[in-house]
Structure formats: structure tokens, C-alpha cells
Amino acid sequence: MSKMVVPGLYRADVETLWGYHDMHHAIRPTDVGVGLGSHDLGVATFAAELYREGMFPRIVFTGANAPTTMERFPRGEAVHYRDHAIALGVSDEAILVEPAATNTGQNIEFTRELLADRGIGVRSATLISRPYQQRRAYSTAKKLWPDIEVICASRPLPLDEYVVTIGDVNRVINMLVGDTQRVMVYPGRGFAIAQDVPSEVEAAYRRLVEAGFTARLVT
């Protein structure tokens, strides 16, 4: 399998999941931007773009490390995101770093605590994430930070362009499958609010699992 091309055999199902995770929120000004740590430096790139456009006055970058990011971001995801955003013109004073979170729930909880500790009132937040993390980020935030308005945002890249930026189509498909599973099972574990999962999304998910894209499934 080419590392840069979505195989035709799986394309329809991958596109179904890709479309499902896009919340299609209209981006508008909020009190804070929250860049969710991951292997995708594009999160910090887009957070910087939105900041420069005046969409929020400050950014919180949140994230420690996962097994997929230790080599690329040895000082932690949030720290590397901060450095990247500063290189793109974001003021150092406009950035807060939350360096301890190791999952999306902690991203939300620790960011909320950091802002509260700094006395920063928040009524709305823009969550900047990987494209396929939007729906999970939204459902997690609405569970753990229910009193704010949540807008989800990602770099507006088509699927094929996104795969090129990551450089590994297997990783992208496995992440899509893993996030879809989490959207389905995490409400039952108390981690997130329930989301509607259309039958075509569940069918696409199950076919991709049967095809072996199981590396990011939780037990």
C-alpha cells in the first residue's frame, strides 16, 4: 500500500468517516483557542492562523506525550506547538502551555483548571484539533466543560492533502477508525456526551475494522 494514497478498496468508507468527524462549525470569535496536542503540527499552524485573524486573544496548547509523539516532540506536544506558533508570529504572552495531559479528557480538564487558576473567565472556546478528532473533542468538552460554547476547528484540508501532510495513510485510517470507536463507546464510560452515529458511519467503521485497521482501538 502506498503511504500517501488512500486505497480505492477503502476510499468510500474512509471518506464516510472523514466527513462524519467534521462538525462543520462556523468559525467565529471566542474567548480562547485550545490547541489539542497530537502528532499533527498542523494543529498549531491553524491555531496561529486563527489567532492572527483575531478569532481569540489567547491560546492554550495542551499535551504531554503519547507513544506516537515522543520521538517527534521530545519536550512535549504543547511545548513544541508553542514554539511553532511563536515562529508563525503569535506573541509569546498570548500563549499558555498545559504540559501534562495525555488524553482528550485531560486536555479539556487541565485547560479548564489552568484558565481558572489564572483568573481567566471563559464563556466560549475554539477547540483546534486534527480533522478526525473534532467530534470526539466536542463530545468530550460538552461532558467536562458543559457551561461554555464550543466551536471545533481544524485545518481545512481535503482528505488526500491531509494524508500527504501526515505522510502515512495507514496512520490516518487507523486514527479515523479509533476516533469513531471512541465516539461510540466513550459516552457509556462517562467520558463524553452521546453523539448520533448514522448507520452508514457504523457500517463503514465495521468494514474498516474487519479489514485490519485496528491499531488505535480501545479495549
UniProtKB/TrEMBL annotation:
Gene3D superfamilies: HUPs. It comes from the Bacteria. InterPro entries: Cell_Envelope_Assoc (IPR051599), DUF218 (IPR003848), Rossmann-like_a/b/a_fold (IPR014729). CDD domains: YdcF-like. GO terms for cellular component: plasma membrane. It holds the Pfam family DUF218. Signal peptide: none annotated. Residues 44-151 form the DUF218 domain. This is Uncharacterized SAM-binding protein YcdF (DUF218 family). It comes from Actinomadura coerulea.
